[in-house]
Amino acid sequence: MNIIFIGDISFKSGRLYFKKIIKSLIEKYEVDFVIANGENMVSGKGINNAVSNEMFSYGCDVLTTGNHIWAKKEVLNFIESESRVLRPYNYSKQAPGRGYNIYKKGEKKLAVINMAGQVGMIPCDNPFLAIEEILPEIKKETNCIFVDFHGEATSEKIAFAYNNDGRVSAVIGTHTHVQTADERILPFGTGYLTDAGMTGPFEGIIGIERENIISRFRTGISDYFKPQKGSNQLNGVFLEIDENNGKCIRIERIYEIEN
Hints:
The chain is of the alpha/beta class. The protein has one domain (2-257): Purple Acid Phosphatase, chain A, domain 2, CATH 3.60.21.10. It has six helices and 13 strands. Strands 1, 2, 3, 4, 11, 12 and 13 form a seven-stranded mixed sheet that branches. A six-stranded mixed sheet has the order 5-6-7-8-10-9, with helices on one face. The radius of gyration is 17 Å and the shape is globular.
């Protein structure tokens, strides 16, 4: 099974660059499932139904999210009924939506789990314990299990991956918007990358207009985030999974810059 995961898609420019390049990536890697983190797709923070459908029309199969999932209140109108959009599983049990789902294409089955870290993030349940609630049921259906771990702390992401090494196919980090260069297959067969990076403005500061962020650091005053103009980037990761045992047998970072 071949999977592409695309790091945090930010702003309209990120969506359009995804559209521009995704078909060639699907062909190159002979992809079965395309997953993307979409929590920053609407004006740099949040998600809505129209933009989600836009991404599905471009070839995305599943959208994961993170701490900005509730930034646009329109999400409350569709997240219960849209099984292709996930929010972190370890958020409040009272929160709408789902934190994982099993997706099928022909005979192929892939479970996608969305988890959030606790370090430096909004309050949520312990992800190390939360995953224990769902793994037994998921494994009755498939051993191919992908986890988007949306977190701030590198150590927490690595610890979560090692804690689940051999039990899930991949743990890929999101949130920081800066792609790391530590892709690897852990000893018991779990593919790992601390952060997949982002898709959107390349020349900004994590996608945002440079002066906007510099002013915030200089003055302590926040302003409305604007996307940096100029070229775009697409960050992500390719994973090949053995469908018989769910082990990752190949991992490769994807890093594309618009010409």
